[in-house]
Write a structure and sequence with these properties.
6 helices, single chain, about 5% strand, elongated, mainly alpha, 2 domains, 2 strands, two-stranded antiparallel sheet
Length: about 120
């Protein structure tokens, strides 16, 4: 009997450097048949998707080509500017950093500087 190995959402999340929930969010936001559909899994075992390991470059390329949201206009800012604005709003550094990390999980298509700019823009 031959055993086959597949990559699940946790393995893809590790490859992307994100939380497994982020992979699930991408799959929901970019279903099959849409303009930038997430690559379809090769197998589904009891509701858990799996991709053949040789497809990892294809999946990483999908992420690289993920369109940025353009529905909002804001200027990227440095971490220092962001932390200064957060301190002015009464946040401790660890709280501001946790906020930035939490939003990075929700908005993985944005860089840290873009997220920081988005937050600072909302605070002003």
């Amino acid at each position: 009997m031959t055993a086959y190995q597949f990559l699940g959402c946790p393995a893809l999340a590790d490859a992307f450097g994100v939380n497994p929930q982020t992979v699930a969010i991408w799959r929901e936001r970019h279903p099959a048949g849409t303009a930038h559909a997430f690559p379809e899994p090769d197998v589904d075992i009891d509701g858990s998707p799996g991709w053949a390991p040789h497809r990892l470059p294809e999946i990483l390329d999908w992420r690289r080509r993920l369109p940025r949201r353009t529905d909002e206009a804001f200027a990227p800012v440095s971490r220092g500017v962001y932390l200064e604005a957060a301190t002015e709003r009464g946040l401790y550094m660890y709280e501001a950093t946790n906020l930035l990390h939490a939003l990075a999980e929700e908005r993985p298509e944005l860089t840290e500087q873009e997220l920081a700019g988005w937050i600072v823009d909302r605070w002003s």
